[in-house]
C-alpha cells in the first residue's frame, strides 16, 4: 500500500484492517478446525463476570493481532464466546478477553 493511501486509512474515522491477499485465501470463520467465535455485548460481558465473580483480566486472553480478532475488528476489553464442537468432547464453551 502506498504511503498516501496508508495516510487516508489512518486518518479515517472508521476502524480499518488491512489484509494481505494470502490471509484471505481461506475463510477462517468457516474453517472446520476453527471454533465458532461470538462477540458478547457489554451486558452479557458484565453478567458473565458477575456470575463467575471474575474481572476481565482473569479471563483467557486473545491477542488483538489474532486472525479472528482482526477479521471481526475486535478491540481491547471485548469478550468473545468460543464454542468448540468435535467428536471427542462434543461441545465446549470458553470465553476470551481481547488484549
Give a written overview of the molecule.
With 99 residues, the chain is an alpha+beta fold. It has a single domain (24-98), classed as Alpha-Beta Complex (Eukaryotic RPB6 RNA polymerase subunit), CATH 3.90.940. The chain is 25% helix and 23% strand. The chain is built from three helices and four strands. It has helices at 3-11, 42-51, 67-72; strands at 36-39, 61-62, 79-86, 90-98. Strands 1-3-4-2 form a four-stranded mixed β-sheet, with no helix packed on it. It is flat. The two termini are 27 Å apart. The model has no long low-confidence stretch (mean pLDDT 92).
CATH domain topology: Eukaryotic RPB6 RNA polymerase subunit
Distance N to C terminus: 27 Å
- Structural class category: alpha+beta
Compute the average pLDDT. 92
- Strand numbers in spatial order across the main sheet: 1-3-4-2
Please indicate the percent range of residues in DSSP E strands (runs of 2 or more).
15-25%
Q: How many strands?
A: 4
The count of helical stretches stands at: 3
Can you give the helix content as a percent range? 25-40%
